[in-house]
Amino acid sequence: QVQLVESGGGLVQPGGSLRLSCTASGSIPSINVLGWYRQAPGKQRELVAVISTGGGTNYADSVKGRFTISRDNAKKTVYLQMNSLKPEDTAVYYCRLAGSYINPYWGQGTQVTVSS
After folding, report:
1. N- to C-terminal Cα separation, the chain
2. How far apart are CA 73 and CA 76, in angstroms?
């Protein structure tokens, strides 16, 4: 069993920045993919960014150049640095852990609101 706990969400003005954190605990596969997903009201949940154990990354086109995903394996934590935030970034952001032969685990989500 794995537990994922997100933090760092909040209200920011357009152009502002936030850093989200997600810390994992439990039986974490040694080889895994950690990711951030988001879901806005009335919208499908979508991938924002993912990062592998070795550090390889993929980003949604909508966030490239603005968001950076990183991980600290010693702290069992994945981060999402969000810069130049736009109102369309407003959503609940979820942390996900995936690995071979397991069902993915999801965090509870953290609200990000970008508004003036």
Report:
1. 40
2. 5
- As a whole number of angstroms, the distance between CA 94 and CA 71 comes to 15
**Side-chain-facing half-sphere of 111: CA atoms under 13 Å:** 5
Please write the tens of the pLDDT for every residue from 16-47: 999 999 999 999 999 999 999 999 999 999 99
Place of tokens 């990711």: 35
In terms of Cβ atoms closer than 10 Å to its own Cβ (0-12, 13-18, 19+), residue 5 is middle
Interval 42-83: pLDDT, tens = 999 999 999 999 999 999 999 999 999 999 999 999 999 999
